[in-house]
Amino acid sequence: MMFTYMCRTCGCSFRSRDFGNVERFIEPCILLLLSKDSSHGYGLMEDLEKHCGEKVDIGDFHRTLRRMERDGWVKSDWEKNEAGADRRVYTITQEGKEFLKSAANSLIRTDKLIHKFLEGFQKSQSV
Amino acid sequence: MMFTYMCRTCGCSFRSRDFGNVERFIEPCILLLLSKDSSHGYGLMEDLEKHCGEKVDIGDFHRTLRRMERDGWVKSDWEKNEAGADRRVYTITQEGKEFLKSAANSLIRTDKLIHKFLEGFQKSQSV
DNA sequence: CATATATATATGATGTTTACATACATGTGT
DNA sequence: ACACATGTATGTAAACATCATATATATATG
Fold it and tell me: Nearest protein residue to C7's C1' (by CA)?
């Protein structure tokens, strides 16, 4: 999620990330989907765009899945695919389920911080 | 905000960031404070820990303020200080006020994404 | 059959952000 | 003289994100 700004002095455009990104938000989103059913990377994409509301970079996405396996949240097995290239099918682990729970708790805390900020902001705007 | 994990293979402990951080959340928090009154870095700390709820690294914090000035959200002036080292006093700019508004809007959107996730998660847990 | 397209996974290069340590300067209290 | 509080700043390394590109297979189309 990048943002294009305009430089105030020379008028050149520069890029910066949009604001409000939750770091690695994609991970609990993936785990929530996998907690319902095992799936493969490419197939998770469509569901993710529905659930996360954001476009996902496919390269980054696969790298994220490999890291999640390294971290123990998921495991993978290759599956033969008649209709195209073979698939690596990901399954959530017990540790992944526990991480999903703790991530949900962290997100509740994050949500409170955001609310606290928005409350203060709205108060300042209504003056 | 770091988190200590235990490695599953060798038992060593490794550190990773806690989950749920909003990237550069500190920036709109600073701007919200400065929209009420100009202040200097060190002095903003106490208020920030109240408003952001998290500890702030002072080195990182000053670097953030310098970047925010470079980006045009704030401007600074040196102020003589009888009771210690001189202070760099930051004031919000018009552009900073506009960024604060757009950041608030982004955070409303972020909040919706988190809610969508938490709803799905709670549904999956109640089965 | 050559080419394009959809499905599918992976990596290289680069820049940004964060964490932690450390440096530097001034004034106060003992 | 020394510790401590106040105050700002930088060096370094790891983690993270972005964008481009590589690789492979199956299907559709001219």
Answer: A84
pLDDT tens digits along B84-115:
889 999 999 999 999 999 999 999 999 999 99
Alpha-carbon gap, residue A30 to A44, rounded angstroms: 8
Min Cα separation B48/chain A (Å) = 11
CB atoms within 10 A of CB B113: 19
Name residues whose C-beta falls within 8 Å of residue B39's C-beta, 6 or more positions apart in sequence: B33, B47, B89, B90
pLDDT at B15 over 90: no
- A124/B51 CB distance under 8 A: no
Beta strands in chain A (DSSP E): 2-6, 13-17, 39-40, 74-79, 87-92
- Give, in Å, how far the C1' of D10 lies from the CA of B28: 24
In order of their start, the domains of chain B are 24-125 (1.10.10.10)
